[in-house]
Amino acid sequence: MTAINIIVSRHATFYSPLIATIAGGFLAEEGFEPTYGVATAEKSARDSLADGSAQLIQSAVSASWGPLDRGETSDIVHFAQINLLDGFFLTGREPAPDFAWSDLEGRTVLADHGGQPFAMFRYALLKEGIDESAINLIDAGDVDSIDAAFRGGQGDFVHQQGPRPQQLAADGVGHVVASVGAAIGPVAFSSLCATRAWLETDMAQAFARAYVKARRWVNETPAADIAAAEAEFFPDIEAGPLAAAIKAYQGLGCWDPAIAIPRDAYEVALDVFAHSGKFPTRHPYDTVVADPPATGG
User: Fold this and answer.
1) What is the pLDDT of residues 191-235, one digit of tens each?
2) CATH code for the domain of 123
3) Structural domain includes residue 257
């Protein structure tokens, strides 16, 4: 078996196409013995890729724009999409079958202030015609702190990735009322990164074969079966909420079976960050994105 180390920037059900390469046995079928870890404040996913301790990472095209703005050069490129939509949900205190985004005005929202999640949330408000200044947006800290704050009674709504909203609902703490992804539409949200040199290897081609199978599997397999396979990756989440999150992502169409990063989705990501003012430079697609490795059919 060949070792392959995968490091992710965030860990959530949203990244099931990547998790499924391990949980579904597809990397093992290609002769790999995979390891999977989450980046830390001390060592980012890109750091692991740069020093060779990881062969590939989960990131986002936007993660490449900061280094480019600083004039840095790198062999690191994005070669496959993970999600074609934003994967965050809004959860409220009460059921809201007729929820409208205008319901946020005058209310308090515990919003994930991470660079990409917050930029996407603000863009969703723009798309929905909502005045951002009319909402009390609270930065409650990291994902665990946000969850604890809402459970503790802070905020009218909370902005989180699955499966946390679905677990809140199962615990009777809140009700999922909206999807940020549905508000924005297709966008280059999260992707797989590697070095251009690695993408030319047989190892990369074998990984791509496994990844194509995994993407097909997460689209075609019942959510409960995927949840059962991925359960060890989410020890603190119950089976029902885990399956509910997976089913929601399947229904949204987050996991397009094609693995290449669409150019039009990349352009939308540029629009999102231009709106936030974080990355005003529109870095060309080919500077950031590479074609996926050949899979042999």
Assistant:
1) 999 999 999 999 999 999 999 999 999 999 999 999 999 999 999
2) 3.40.190.10
3) yes
Q: Measuring CA to CA, which residue among 38, 30, 31 is closest to residue 11?
A: 38
Amino acid type, 222: P
pLDDT at 297 (0 to 100): 46
| β pairing state of 32-38 and 175-179 | unpaired
- Give how many domains the chain has, as a whole number: 2
> Does pTM surpass 0.70?
yes
Helix 223-230 with 239-252: angle, nearest 10 deg: 130
One domain for residues 8 and 147? no
Structure-token pair, residue 279: 């990355």
| Position 296 in a domain | no
Mean pLDDT of the chain: 93
| Contact call for residues 257 and 46 (beta carbons, < 8 A) | no
Beta strand segments in 184-238, E: 190-195
In order of 36, 42, 68, 76, 231, the CA distances from 48 in angstroms are 12, 11, 19, 11, 26
Overall average pLDDT of the 174-195 stretch = 95
Task: Indicate the residue among 161, 184, 207 that finishes a domain.
Answer: 184
Whole-angstrom distance, CA of residue 213 vs CA of residue 215: 6
What domain range is 283 assigned to?
2-85+187-288
Joined tokens for residue 131: 């005045």
